[in-house]
Write a structure and sequence with these properties.
Blueprint (H helix, E strand, L loop, with lengths): L4 H9 L2 H7 L21 E3 L23 H7 L2 H17 L4 E3 L22 H16 L4 E7 L12 E3 L2 H8 L1 H8 L5 E4 L3 E2 L8 H11 L5 E3 L8 H7 L14 H8 L9 H13 L18 H14 L1 E5 L12 E5 L24 H9 L4 E5 L15 E7 L9 E5 L3 E5 L9 E9 L5 E10 L1 E6 L2 E5 L19 E7 L5 E8 L6 E9 L6 H10 L3 E7 L20 H11 L3 E6 L14 E4 L7 H10 L12 E2 L17 E3 L8 H6 L4 E3 L10 E3 L3 E2 L3 E3 L6 E9 L5 E11 L10 E10 L4 E8 L6 E3 L5 H8 L17 E3 L3 E8 L7 E8 L6
Helix pairs in contact: 3-12, 4-5, 4-12, 5-7, 8-9, 12-16, 13-16, 14-15
Bound molecules: beta-D-glucopyranose.
Amino acid sequence: MSASERVEQLIRDLTRAEKVLLLAGSDMWSSHPVPRVGIPRVKVTDGPGGARGGSMPGATTTTSLNVPCAAALGATWNTELIERVGRAVGTEARTKSARVLLAPTVNIHRSPLSGRNFECYSEDPNLSGRAGAAFIRGAQSSGVATTVKHFVGNEAETERYTTSSVIDERALREIYLVPFEFAVTEGETLGVMTAYNRMNGPWCAEHRELLSEILRGEWGFDGFVISDWFACAHTEDALRAGLDLEMPGTGRIYGAALERALDAGDVAESELDAPVRRLLDVFERIGALDDPIEPEPEQAVDRVEDRALVREAAAESMVLLSNSGVLPLDPGALRTVAVVGPNAAFLNVNGGGSASLNPHHRSEFLESLGARLGTGVEIVHVAGCDIDTVAPALRIAMRAEIHAGTEWAGDARSTASFRSSELLFFGPVDDIGEEFSFRASGSFTPDRSGVHTFSLVQAGRARVSIDGDVVLDGIASPPPPGPELYGLGSREMTASVELDAGHTYELQIDYTSLFSAVLRGVKLGYRPPVDTDPIATAVAAAARADVAIVVVGTNAHWESEGHDRTSMDLPGEQDELVQQVAAANANTVVVLNTASPVTMDWTDSVAAIVQGWFGGQEMGDALVDVLVGDAEPAGRLPTTIPLRVEHNPSFGNFPTENGEVRYGESLLVGYRWYDARALPTRFPFGHGLSYTTCTIDAPSVSQATLRTDADAGITVEATVTNTGARRGAEVVQCYVAPRVSALARPPKELKAFAKVWLDPGESTVVRLELGPRAFAYWDPGNAGWPELVAMQRDCNPFAPPPEAMRTTAGWRIDPGVFDILVGRSSADLAQRVEVTVEDPTPAP
Ligand code: BGC
């Protein structure tokens, strides 16, 4: 690659030690500055749910724009909208003084159980790739570099630091690499983040074939490669494979280890130049070389237009899975609405882990619904059941007075404010360090009398008092380590406390950082008095309502980085709740506040189902917009919802076995599998109803025959007409189905799509481009094949002649007829047109 003279001069000026410094972070979220030659510290931020800044959620009060999760964005099938969302997130990253955005995530929805599905767009590589590229274009237009992640094969969280994803060459090329290829070739991403896992053996961070041969060699990627956090193993292997920046600082395999390798002569100093050049080149391209040496303080900039964008995107992502006609609701015809379900009062708007953040704002569903329906409509809310595995934090303001040292000694040296009773500190406290103690206080007024439950999870040691009485003492009786707080917390300890409604209680937490590392602090959890039969209460409310809206789902605990789900069923007693409410009210509308498929055996018993996703900070308003018809439910499923978990393609090969994740279904991911196996689905890939009706006319093709050596591809055109009475959207989906193929192929594959918005009676022509790759598959070939055949030619005179044997790997298109299928879901493809691919080298 050629870098600017400025970068080349910097490389000449840098000492060996400075080059080594540059190749590893300086701390959790920054690269190393080299002030002597004017190279600033470059800050990074997660991604992809927004730009959180240099902390962890719960460990900061800084707020950020929280956009809909990637699964929701995938469901919009609207690349222009995703690009706008990407731009907003990139702009937010700049408000956090970050120049590198650790997003988007373009791994594939391989299993409905994968913990990070919410962060990824789709089960389909084309949709994932186009969505990811759009996000990248938007984000990078605001002066940040994106690091598309996690390269590659990171489709499970279980044992993610060690597993090897065992993926055959065709599945790798045709499915899992494709979104990254789009990110490079169409998104022009400036960064790539390697995955924690290994891929067919070697760690992704030191995978020469992936990083040097495919990414840089074949795709021409000229940006930098960054490791996932702590995901590095060997100094020389990583350097030679092409890992440019080890994160976080100060480096396990680079830093001091790289110095040692240089001293020992295992690495030559000249080998440092290429990664340093790639880093500095990107820094220069995003303007970072002209930034101040130390990043500015973080800001929280809550913009009206961003709130509007996030609301639009959330509404547009919602998928109307079924509808008897109850939706859209007619506010004028309603007197009583029952709102039921554990997520109704506090929607889950993002998944858990590094993608989570403190939103600038939250629109709450109950309030939004009340405001939209007006005072004439009574809204009765009953949770019905509880899905929290540990008690959630109280949503109260708390303030901590922080002392240096672990004994609360002397005067407090600083203070910190929190918006909930989760009080976390990530890394050292400014001007104090890692040994500190705090006293935090806040007040709480219950609205019910009875026995309330408080719980404590600690990373360190803490005690909790209510009105001066110690109720939980993790200092005197510390619980053993547990899975909470990113695996750095204790098990939950609980206490039952009798409290009176309306009385204000003073809560105090005394905390010391003794016995803690990296993440410090506490989560004080709370559960209200238990209703003896909450489902019966919900059913009674539903029975007397005109409509029952049941908001069921998961939350950031169930769908999170760090672990996978073990069941596709809705957690807790939610299925029972839906069944019983539906039996009591024929107008039961179920809203799925989930990012991955769930089992829905009650589908036919309810009047309507809306897949609402984790819709970001404006989800409450957006959901009301869709339910009352102020917005069109314009989403389409980016991932198949199977009838049962046993039907999904990864079943039996998920998550791990003896340190390996076997991708046994190979190419048959998602709808490719259900098609090939003729399996029924609950809702097919691409499915989504509308409040209007559209027709898609018979398509035409720009040419009925294609010579792959001469033609760049074909254009498919189809007229779409809104035949209904409302403005609405249609997503025209185009699948390519080969009639014959030398190697086994999925029955059909999505290769193009377009979303259109139409007024009643309006028509438009959509154009879908199918390049040669839309017809191609990856043929690994077999170099040893001719030799094997030659050895056995005596017993098999009909063996193929040597010239017919494919010995090298590459993209191939077999001549023959391809069906081009056009329609509105993978199972609703009413239109078909044929294209014939001619053999570019016909026999003489
Ligand atoms: C995640 C990455 C994330 C990084 C920094 C890792 O655990 O896998 O996606 O960007 O942490 O938070």
